[in-house]
Amino acid sequence: MGRMLVVVLWLCAGSALAASAGAAIEVHGSADGKAPAWTISSTAPPGWTTDCCTYARAIGVNEVLYQGEWTGKPDRVMVLNVWPSKLPTLDAELQDDRKHYLQADPAGKVVAFPVKNPRMPCSGVLYSGSDHVDDPVVFCDPGAATGIRYSWSMTVSAVDPSRESLLDAFRQVVAHSRYANPAPTSSSAGKAH
Question: What CATH class is the domain 22-177?
Fold first, then answer.
């Protein structure tokens, strides 16, 4: 009986650990102009679904993370957007985004949204709209040689009872995000493009 209890407890602990681990996120992009091919990866919060190819493509982004069923509404959806860098600095990207947000919602408020990513500089803001909807947006710069920048964003109601835990989960996704330049495969090595 004692051995059986230990086995049952061990199995339950293993299930709990598996349930608490989030799904790996890995999004790839092809070379585009001066930007080489890229991979952005992170870890989704436990219980979140990741999608790069159905819903994300339909709304014109690289990746979406959501809980439950896809509703098509932005509430509680994390979004990854990657683009060839055009502005000179990460701060310029942030200022440009802030300008467009305040033009669309002059009564909106903007506050800093700090996120520490140990692999690269990231800078974030929390937009609080006059519609009582908050949008954290974090821009990350994996370096000039990559030729890209990317952002994570999410929409959450200002009165959502889970707002703080959602913002914490969002911060974790951003903090764990990484850039990689995938090595050419042996079949593509040496081929002229």
Answer: alpha beta
